[in-house]
Amino acid sequence: MKERIVMIGANGQIGSELASALRHKFGAENVITSDIREPSTLKKDEIFEIINVLDKSALKSLFEKYKPTQVYLLAAMLSATAEKYPQKAWDLNINGLLNVLDLALELDIKKIFWPSSIAVFGPHSPKQNTDQYCVMDPVSIYGVSKLAGERLCEYYHHKYDLDIRSIRYPGIISWKTAPGGGTTDYAIDIFIEALKYRRYTCFLSAHTALPMLYMDDAVRGTIELMDAPAGQISIRSSYNLGGVSFTPAQIAEEIKKILPNFEMSYVDYDPRQAIADSWPASIDDAYANKDWGWEPKFDLASITEDMIANLKTNV
Ligand code: AKB
Fold first, then answer.
1. Which element (helix H / strand E) includes 66?
2. Is the pLDDT of residue 191 over 90?
3. What is the rounded CA–CA span in Å between residue 55 and residue 122?
4. How far apart are CA 14 and CA 90, in angstroms?
5. Best residue among 79, 166, 186, 204 to mutate for probing ligand 1, ranked by most atoms within 8 Å of CB
6. pLDDT tens for each residue of 193-227
7. Can you tell me the distance from the alpha carbon of 311 to that of 315, in angstroms, rounded to the nearest whole number?
8. Backbone dihedral region of 198: left (phi > 0), alpha (psi from -120 to 50 degrees) or beta?
9. Which residues have CB under 8 Å from 197's CB, separation 6+?
């Protein structure tokens, strides 16, 4: 079957890189990107539409116009911004998802991708190698909305047989597109400031370990999950996906190997610390490995080398 993809929230960190990979795989004419604003660049053969996922009738017209076989819903408010606007975060993260799920049933859209997050875990979840199935008591509104979203995904799969697939993304590190409003954003900011000023003041404390993933791995993993035969997908809430795990102190040490005069300092207090403290330090992704062969390729050293090599020419 010829695939046609509509991506919602395509201007964000993951969307912009995933969209180019999907255009490469399926052809630019078969990937329609959308967001609430025009993207900063758009090539001649790329199709883009302005859409707000909360406007259900506009969303319906978009789906009727392009008749997608797959929808990637990436519009979301991330953890730190969501704490400032909890109602808006809930509205976007949950009602946006419900609009897509309902329209998928109504218009017979076959496959959906929706991103969850490590934010679904909480203070009573195991900290190290956090299991796919364990206590989940998120304390951030972002985590609460992602956990509720996971339950909706599983419900729509079991009740209506919707082929919905999802990944609990850790912090995603990339050099092409900046993230916005996340707790893990320091792991990108640090490279930009290291190259510009040779110093960085981190908003998380030196020994806060968090799970992270390089964008190349995140894009490849997402496409591998979407390509896997439906029979191999045993999890319809969202898959744990591991990459690397490190602290601000460890990434600073790695940067110093390439930029020896780099200096790191830490703020006394930042509200994002409480969010980070409630999240896992590392993730057990055995199900993703068993079900669809997931293996990350980038470690901290190769991430650091690649980030610096690519940012050097842009910063
Ligand atoms: C955030 O920090 O909010 C995101 C996430 C881990 O989902 N990067």
1. helix 56-66
2. yes
3. 32
4. 20
5. 79
6. 999 999 999 999 999 999 999 999 999 999 999 99
7. 6
8. left
9. none
Ligand 1 atom at minimum distance from 118 CA: 6
Answer whether residue 1 shows pLDDT above 80.
Answer: no
Q: Can 142 be counted among the known catalytic residues?
A: yes
| Main-chain phi, psi angles of 201, to 5 degrees | -105, 115
> Helices 13-26 and 215-227, interaxial angle, to 10°?
50
pTM of the model: 0.97
User: φ, ψ for residue 14 (rounded to 5)?
Assistant: -75, -40
- What's the half-sphere exposure (Cβ side, CA atoms, 13 Å) at 167? 30
Token match 């953890």: residue? 79
Residues near ligand 1 (Cβ within 6 A) = 78-79, 117-119, 142, 169-171, 182-184
Give the pLDDT confidence score for residue 197 in this predicted structure.
97
Q: Which of 66, 72, 85, 142 is catalytic?
A: 142
Q: Tell me the CA–centroid distance for residue 79 and ligand 1, in Å.
A: 6
Q: What are phi and psi of 265, to 5 degrees?
A: -130, 175
Question: Please, which residues have CB within 8 angstroms of residue 163's CB and are 6 or more apart in sequence?
Answer: 110, 111, 112, 157, 230
Q: Residue of the nearest CA to atom 1 in ligand 1?
A: 182
Tell me the pLDDT tens digit for each residue of 112-137. Answer: 999 999 999 999 999 999 999 999 99
Task: For residue 267, report the distance from its CA to the centre of ligand 1, in Å.
Answer: 20
Cα 29 to middle of ligand 1, angstroms: 31
Distance 151 CA to ligand 1 centre (A): 19
**188 near 179, Cβ under 8 Å?**
yes
Sign (positive/negative) of CA torsion 18, 20, 21, 25? Answer: positive
This complex has an ipTM of: 0.98
